[in-house]
Amino acid sequence: MCANRPDEGALAGEAGTQPGTRAVNGLRGRLRDNVVTAHRLLLVRRARRPQRPRTRFVLYLAASLALVVLAGLVFDLPVGNYHATWPASFDKTARSVTDLGQAGWVLLAAGLALFFGSAADWRLASLRKRMALLRVTALTGYLFTSLAAGGLIATIVKYCIGRARPLHFAELGAFAFRPFTDATFASFPSGHATTVGGFFAAIALVFPRLRVPCLVLALWLAFTRVLVGAHYPSDVVAGLAWGAWFSYFTAMVFASRGIVFRYDANGFPVRRMGYGLALNGMRRRSNAGRRGRRLD
After folding, report:
1. What pTM does this model have?
2. Domain-located, residue 291
3. How far apart are CA 107 and CA 102, in angstroms?
4. Is residue 292 part of a domain?
């Protein structure tokens, strides 16, 4: 009977030739090769972080806390008392746009772009196309990291604090806390505002000329959460501040590696020209001795 048993090694070899297995192995190989290529392209772009005033983060934190406390003391109680009596037109307009602040659609788009950019076969592309793929992948990676990690931390904090939403104002007031309650009860900080703050801060860092429109859109979209009765103003201020800061922090991490950003003379992360992901040696080999224009 033992003589009739199929050889396990042969079975494994046959399984490895199945179309699905070949596709998975091919994808795995492309991802590995792309990581190696990206590492080579980025190796010469690691940046030394300049000295920055240590008070910068402390000042931002102090200003954010002051705004949160001010919003809580001045606006939260009036919002709790009167949000149900606001004109129906306010509520209708706010509800028509407030879901744009959900993280799902942004993370899905950025995640898909990141996946397909990473899974593409860079070996078949020219240097210029490889650089374009690397820039797009790096940019979507920055956006995805900023929103996903920042949103996850905000959700954990919200769950731990457990501040009651305006929906429970009549019963519990504006400053009731029940830690470790579900998300339908917990209010602080606003997850929508965190996404909005992180997204528009990231856009403003990559495209500085859009800073003013980004600020206006971020404030409008975030405060629709107040108009629909889902959050207090202090929830929104905290979410905006946290989301914006986390995108800034992620940009600093990327700048230290020369990806998408670099440090300016004052230690702030600013976008690289062309995202600065060229490697002179690879360009020389690709151009077969021809002198190419140096990519910044």
Report:
1. 0.73
2. no
3. 9
4. no
